[in-house]
Amino acid sequence: MSRASDRELLSVMPLHAITAVHGEQGLRDRLALETARLANPAGRAPAERALQLAVRLHAGDRRQREPYVNHLLRVALRIMVHYGVFEPDVICAALLHDAVEDHTEDLSAAGRVGAFARLTADYGQPVAELVAAVTNPVYTVGGDKDVQYRAHVASSLEACPWARVIKLSDFTDNGVGVIHTTGGKAIRLARKYAPLVPALAELAARPDTPLTDRVKARILAQLGTATDRFDAIIAASSGGR
Fold first, then answer.
1. Which of 60, 105, 122, 146 shows the smallest number of beta carbons within 10 Å?
2. Where are the alpha helices (DSSP H) in 138-195?
């Protein structure tokens, strides 16, 4: 968007509306508007580089009917727009939160150790540690992956308050956005995510979670919306029983 009036409109549009009307470019334009507000201008360059890497890594990835990078953009934007957080390390980690999980080998031939080492070298240890905290584990063969996922989320976020901020935005996009997913995948995700809501709600409400009370209340309301959607999907899949 080049005109000032277009940028002004974009700056107040809800994220889902930007996605629907303007797609990836609109989200990228909104991110540029928000990163321009960073208190330290030096923080803009790492965020721009993080977006460039995310776009390259996820170039062939899709999320239902949209480019996967839209999800990454919304996660970062929600943190700024709705949570009021403008910490450059958090924004970079939000944009890269699925990088190691989904594209380890594209980051390093040395596997996850090498991938995190690259993030540390390129973006600093705080960013790499935040990405590590929200990266799903390598699952134990034969175990229930959903149970392992939920246990990992709860334990990794316990000691990392800033990682909670990223995970809450990620979960909101996945959970509230599950309504845009169809078929068996929606049922699988609903059953995977629903049991995690109480743990996330408890973590969100903690005094050391670096968000204001107003933002925490917003997140808890969104978690409630996600729960309602999970319950409706699960009920429909079992014939309403």
1. 60
2. 145-158, 161-175, 183-193
Flag whether the pTM goes above 0.85. yes
Distance, first Cα to last Cα, the chain: 49
The two structure tokens encoding residue 241: 């029983």
- Interval 69-121: pLDDT, tens: 999 999 999 999 999 999 999 999 999 999 999 999 999 999 999 999 999 99
Give the position of tokens 């979960």.
Answer: 171
The partner residues of 66 in beta bridges, in order of sequence, read: 63
**Token reading at 155:** 């334990």
HSE, side-chain direction, 13 A CA sphere, residue 36: 8
H-helix segments, the chain: 4-10, 15-35, 44-57, 69-81, 88-95, 99-107, 111-123, 125-133, 145-158, 161-175, 183-193, 197-205, 213-237
Buried b (16+ CB within 10 A) or exposed e, 179-212: eebeeeebbebbebbbebbebbbebbeeeebebe
Contact status, residue 85 vs residue 79, Cβ threshold 8 Å: yes
Q: Residue 27, Cβ neighbours under 10 Å: how many? A: 24
Task: Output the CA angle 230-234-236, nearest 5 degrees.
Answer: 120
